[in-house]
Amino acid sequence: MTAILSFANVWVEYGEKIVLERISLEVAEGAFVSIVGPSGAGKSTFLRLVLGQEAPRRGTIQIDGRPLSPEPGRDRGVVFQRYSVFPHLSAIENVLFGLDCAGSPIRGRLSGPARRAARERAEAMLVQVGLGEALEVHPAQLSGGMQQRLAIAQALIMRPRILLLDEPFGALDPGVRLDMHGLITDLWREHRLTILMVTHDIKEAFRLGTRVVALDKRRHDPTAPERYGSTAVFDLPLDRKNRTAIPPQLAAIAGPGGASV
Amino acid sequence: MRRLLNVRPDRGQRLVLGFLPFLALALLYLTASAARHAENPREKILPTIGAMAHEVKVMAAQVDPQTGAIPLWQDTGASLRRLAIGLAIATVTTLVLGLMIGVLPLCRASLGPLIAAIAVIPPIAILPILFITLGLGETSKIALIALGVTPFMVRDLAGHVAAIPEEQIVKAQTLGASTWQIVLRVALPQAMPRLLDCLRLSLGPAWVFLISAEAIASDVGLGYRIFLVRRYLAMDIILPYVAWTALLAVGIDLALLTLSRRAYPWAHRARSA
């Protein structure tokens, strides 16, 4: 088991306010890690760290044993809750975007045989996520679930080392969300992906993950709430046995949403 | 009884309702004009339709022996040329600066304040400077139009580009796109429909600057003619010229809207969705 991503004593502070403190964890290749925690516990900040949108104040983050580059890059694919596809491009063009950029630095657009080959790959990818019938459709004409399928296809075609999911199914209807759970699980198995998913839905975290990490403040000073940051208060590897049994401590952390589990 | 704000006219009713004010204005004009002519047959302020039609024939169909050209077409050609060149310069400048300021924080920090400062200068106030430095010819008129609308357009476009969701920009980077590729393939295509919108909004001010510059120093152009014949109280020429100018403005606006709908259907679909 080799670690793709490792955090060593990472701190994030904004001035006096400590957001994350003493984050140390390793993510193994092929893991599906769910990150949960109450609102304001630094889940988004954690994701921004991995994306390189933010640098840690202290500590180091490594990917494949090398320091993480301080800006978003091809080794980390991402699907956000919203706005992660390009509204001006059709579905197939959205998926081709990464291949276009890789193969054509100046025009940003492949042409000739290279384009045809890339198009075939992109088509196959879209078929795999269930959008084989919507190749030429623009995102505004796709439903929320289909837009997320498109965003996943767009990220996967670049074969990222890690796929980051930021509340990817949070805006979807419950039925659609179940379909998406099936899809992402299949893709994870088939492409041997390493996935880091931030979610506020603790049921979802347990259903999909091979490991659940909860972020929360370990200590709390009521007179100075900014004194202590969140850290990984809970780190639970999942197997078939404990997948359905959500520990009560964790349900408490997750707050009102966790009560419904 | 339904609330007034819930009463919605259908398509036919909208056409009739939209036409009514025009009809009312025309009737008002005709009665007022007839009344004044009954009192004074040499009345000039509210000319009859017949008198205006006669002048239109003179201006639009007869060659002026002094210039060897038909005045209306000559004026229209000269004005549209100035407008087109001025707006073309403004549009290209806006596209380049708007993308740079919208995408690159370094450009936003260095150019943003300057553009904001220039934007608050009333363009007509710099017209004398343009006349002094560029002369009274075509250049100063074109420069007034370009300088008059560019700062507003740049600010609008830069704001629009900067408002592209950060998620999109981050996503493009995770797909391996460089700064240049993000400008070319993410920002530029999404800026284009807004640029056309912006150009449509700038048409109004552009006409104001054009007519002003022509009124002050010119020997041909729609604004020149209107201000020239004002000396003779020639309302029978002024009114048709104003109507013609309005028609041109509406025509250009519609042409730009059609272009935008044809070239960027995704933007119009997303807007109505």
List keywords for this structure.
heterodimer, A: 261 residues, alpha/beta, Rossmann fold, four-stranded antiparallel beta sheet, 10 strands, 33% helix, globular, disordered C terminus, B: 273 residues, mainly alpha, MetI-like fold, 11 helices
- Given helix and strand content, the structural type of chain B is mainly alpha
- Strand share of the residues of chain A? 15-25%
Would you identify the CATH H-level superfamily of chain A?
P-loop containing nucleotide triphosphate hydrolases
Rounded mean pLDDT of chain B is 93
Task: Identify low-pLDDT runs of chain A.
Answer: 256-261
- H/E element sequence of chain A: EEEHEEEHHHEHEHEEHH
From the 3D structure, determine the CATH topology of chain A: Rossmann fold
CATH architecture classification of chain B:
Orthogonal Bundle
Specify Rg of chain B, calculated over alpha carbons: 24 Å
Number of beta-strand segments of chain B? 0
- Judging from the principal axes of the Cα atoms, what is the shape of chain A? globular
**The CATH fourth-level homologous superfamily of chain B:** MetI-like
Summing up helix and strand content along with how strands pair, one would put the structural category of chain A as: alpha/beta
Largest sheet of chain B: none
Bin the helical content of chain B: over 70%
Largest sheet of chain A: 6 strands, mixed
